[in-house]
Design a protein that fits this description.
Layout (H helix, E strand, L loop, with lengths): L3 H11 L6 E4 L7 E2 L3 E2 L9 E2 L3 E4 L8 E10 L13 E5 L11 E4 L3 E2 L7 E5 L9 E2 L10 E3 L7 H9 L4 E5 L3 E7 L3 E2 L10 E2 L2 H11 L3 E8 L3 H11 L4 E5 L10 H7 L3 E5 L10 E6 L4 E7 L3 H19 L9 E6 L3 E3 L5 E10 L2 E6 L16 E5 L4 E3 L4 E6 L1
The protein binds adenosine monophosphate and magnesium ion (MG).
Amino acid sequence: MILIEEALQLIDAQASPLAPTKIAVTQSLGTVLAEDVCSDIDSPPHDKAMMDGYAILAEDLQQGKAQLKIIEEVTAGQVPTKALSSGEATRIMTGAPVPTGATAVVMIERTTVADDSPELVAINDASIVAGKNIMLQATSLKTGQVVLPKGTLIRPIEIGILSEVGRVEVLVQPRPSLAVLCTGNELVSPEIKPGPGIIRNSNGPMLSAQAQNVGAEVHYLGIGRDDEAELKSLITQGLQHDVLVLSGGVSAGVLDLVPKLLADQDVKQVFHKVSIKPGKPIWFGVKDHGDRKTLVFGLPGNPVSSMVCFELFVRQAIGKLLGRSDQALGTVKTRLAQEFTHRGNRPTLFPAKLIQQEDQKIVSPINWKGSADLGSLTNADVLIYFPGGDHVYAVDDEVDALIL
Ligand code: AMP
Ligand code: MG
């Protein structure tokens, strides 16, 4: 049995970023750029009005006042046809290019046009100086400038910028394809009301959602019976992907066939069993196909074990394949809201609730009944890390927790 840190290092050593591929910008959310992206335009492409109002020569104003002749109107999408001279104004809308000669834009609220002389505008705005309400060409982006360097995580903002600089496709670290396979004779699909001895497959949908949540492309293989021939064929399908996540069948039961069947298909075991609670029986191995690899995780079937092992181990592997360094669960240092007794040699990740107390957050372990108790987990926001060994923790003791 190895330590959590050793397991994480072994996984890290086996996972490397996938070969970059071009994908549609609209599909790129959450991926990492594998190229420098340059702007093909200036933004804004012209000196542009930032207000609806009048483009003027700032020096025409005396204490903010002037009566000017309106020479044309320019709305967004149009371009001015007349240069401004002293004594003139162009009625202009936000986003439109300012006419040659203009040095400021006065907002419409500071102007009046009398009904009987619609060709004249009276300005009254003492705040106007040269440059006011004009955004100069290329203030935001310059032609040729690298606007997004390789390695940038694509968030909605980056999708906006990519679109602004004319990209519809982009080179990224692709999403790993990940297969989920749940093993167990006792499992039925969630739509079925389970009979005696039978339980619903909660892990399949949960693990698929967890994988999707961290950017994998999920291929759900459903339920496999604890039968060599059936599992062999499903494992073969699973090995076509970058990651295969199995649940169940990795402990010491008579029908725990997964490690043997994986070995039969040349999946090399890297480790089996980690000193952790829940999740001790976790199995990890690698199938080397020559030109690519499949990382294989056999997660213990109890739902909380599956859930926690995914968040701790599989999540890190997916992050590495995606080229992301920020994919591990966040941690928080906090204080216990109540006394807590930890027993056992293995480090425990214990579900708990964060409670706001005045200006700090404290943490209260939930009434959790162990690795088969997924129900209580809906009340948890964090997993408190208790090191191995029997210990009584007092109220206010500092603990580390992983944020779910
Ligand atoms: P195993 O790891 O196969 O020994 O399973 C451990 C426990 O987890 C057993 O009580 C199983 O019934 C349960 N279990 C296994 N697979 C699932 C699943 N997909 N969904 C919910 N519970 C499961
Ligand atoms: Mg089983």
